Fold this sequence. Notes:
Blueprint: E1 4-9, H1 26-43, E2 46-52, E3 81-84, H2 95-101, E4 106-112, H3 114-127, E5 131-140, E6 144-146, E7 149-151, H4 153-167, E8 170-172, H5 174-179
Parallel strand pairs: 1-2, 1-4, 2-3, 4-5, 5-8
Antiparallel strand pairs: 6-7
Helix pairs in contact: 3-4
Amino acid sequence: MSKRAVVVIDLQNEYWPSGGLALENIERAAANAARVIAHGREAGDLIVNVRHEMPGAPVFVPGSEGAEINEVVAPGEGEPVITKNFPNSFRDTGLKDLLDEKGVEEVFVVGAMSHMCVDATVRAANDFGYKTVTIHDACATRDLEFNGATVPAAHVHTALMAAFEFAYGEVVATDDFIKR
């Protein structure tokens, strides 16, 4: 049995152009995530789907279309789906217990948003001792604003991936990941 897991973070309809929180390049990121997932399935890796819900918020409303995982990366038969209410996929969920139960030592992370839930989860996975690989072109984010300045999504994403590579694990492109 593989000691690896693909952790698919929040690739939910809310992030598509028809949702309430559209991300730049979400379709391309999801297509790459689907390739990573297919590769993981073929390799016998655990595929863990994480979905965000925000009761009482205008987005990620439990039971809404926006809170559903997008069909491009739909969970396969029997694949676990972890529901979370915080950016960190480990916080107040059974994710760590599941990974430990399955003997997972290495996690491959794809999903959204690079600057929020992917960030929190990659850092936590590393802190918990998992070897962490982020598939950068299978993640998406959006422009951010701070103190009157807009930071383009591409800059937000690049800064996060650089930080991951500096101290939180490997960062690779989908094609390079699949060639291994």
